[in-house]
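Submission checklist for the structure archive. All mandatory fields must be present; incomplete records are returned to the submitter.

[x] Identifier: t-SNARE affecting a late Golgi compartment protein 1
[x] Organism: Penicillium chermesinum
[x] Residue count: 245
[x] Sequence attached
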Amino acid sequence: MAHADPFLQVQADVLSTIQSSRPLFSSYLRIRSTAKSPNNPELSQARSELETTLTDLSADLDDLIESVRAIESDPYRFGLELSEVQRRRKLVDDVGSEVEAMRQELLKTVSANPEPDPAALPNPTEFDAALEEEEGGRGRGDFYASMELQRQSELMHEQDEQLDGVFRTVGNLRQQASDMGRELEDQAVMIDEVDTLADRVGGKLTNGMARIRHIVRKNEDTWSSFCIAALIFALVILLILVIVL
């Protein structure tokens, strides 16, 4: 009854959550690498989303860990093979390691980007670094914008090619429909001609049969008269013989 195993149900949720957390983590690292300040709103939002996802993932992962601990003592009691137990243990370890690595990155961010002291004077070199970062951000923005434009151009080109293919297909279908229409018209003309010929032949056959029946009836009357005359002649001869003899 593997379909009723709660571990498999929670496993599906964990795998789905870890799959959705990976792009959030990648986005967080990208925003962190380009952010000028740890108080960046976009960085804070990305961090909050990632922390929420990791919290939900940790709760489900704890349930999986407890389940694995329960079946490790006596797997056969739960109808499981040792290979399945090892697979579950490996799954829990792999997901746990990945979650822990994400949490370590969040902790490194806190320690590597301390809150600035409002009373402290800024270092003059920070202005140069900020200016370079801003220029670099502009360069990256231009690069991303050009990449996006190129991607959109490629998508439009692909759509144009697909539309051309659809147009050619529709043209071929239209040509085929036109050819089929002409063939049907030709066949209709041929059928009309065949019907006309059939009517003519049927009329001729009817007339021929009528003539044949007339001839047969006429012949039947002639032979009947001949037979009657022959019988009368035979009776007369017999009467003469009877009288003579």
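[x] Structure attached
Curator remark: Helices lie at 6-34, 41-72, 82-112, 124-244. Confidence is low (pLDDT under 50) at residues 110-127.
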